[in-house]
Amino acid sequence: MNQTIYLDNAATTRTNPQVVEAMLPYFTENYGNPSSVYEFSAPSKEIIASARETIAESLGARPAEIYFTAGGTESDNWAIKAVAEAYGDKGKHIITSKIEHHAVLHTCEYLEKRGFEITYVDVDENGIIKLDELRKAVRPDTILISVMFANNEIGTIEPVKEIGRIAREHGILFHTDAVQAYGHIPIHVDEYNIDMLSSSAHKLNGPKGIGFLYIRTGIKMRSFVHGGAQERKRRGGTENVPGIAGYKKAVEMAMASMEEREKKERELRDYLIDRVMAEVPYVRLNGHRTTRLANNANFAFQFIEGESLLIMLDSSGICGSSGSACTSGSLDPSHVLLAIGLPHEIAHGSLRLTVSSENTMEEIDFVVERIKEIVKRLRDMSPLYEDFVKSAKR
Fold it and tell me: Which of 9, 13, 170, 232 gives a 20 to 30 Å CA spacing to 91?
């Protein structure tokens, strides 16, 4: 196959041409600053208001509860830091999980240095948070629970409804990083008792550099970016109007195609998982087999280095990853894989492949054949595998 096979949609997705088309007028025609008072700025104001309505409707929220940001990382930072600042007099205890995105974990580490206490709840071997441990972690001074909707590496979907119920029963705010889930799974903020939710457009065929934070009405949230009066005085700075226009279009398309897209991706994913598990020895599927994102497959191959596998797949035109795109270049094994109980030597042999509805079965067949060839070649060069084979023959 003399073409690129893109299987890293958890890192980013292709911006849909219709999304690009929706953005273009706000670069060259309707380019007025939405904060200006003259009529020329009206289209910029209107598209922002319309996008807010579209996103709010997709979540069962109100338009005034949607705040535009630069993406998921900013939204996570804002939610956690602002709650810490606004509710710190009530308590300085926050609960999260050990498998969160680094946007959450590093923010929590930042707060620990400033007098807050963070409880990192364990997950089971499938990456599902231990609800009993979460309940036991609740204290009178707990002000926030932050647990992701679905994991970006292993695809496991968390029991968000139960987590939200626990938070609501104890009068604790609940934030969820839904960067991987929004636009792929139906989400209703009232049904799940979600108080804050983070999202990023480039995970659902929208542009990079635009996201939102849902903040339930009544929550005390101070400004995160100080400046002008944009976003109801909570996030200063001229709005990314083209990005917001693109996000609106991406959300409309994602909501309209969700059921059909999920079915196609699930078929591709299951076919990929079934073939790899049946045809490659000494491999483990990471994450829950069924309670996972429809597009996610994450494997751990024994006796090889995931980085070598990625490089050799790349030489065949196949794009995958060994974990989160935000930690590429790190020599440390995935904190997610360690949290689900994998030893370091196996965690280093991980491969994450995330499909889209644009992929084909023919592409998956080609990828599986290349994985089989590359894994065999790498193991043939591995002294660890050689020792394993020798010991098995004794």
Answer: 232
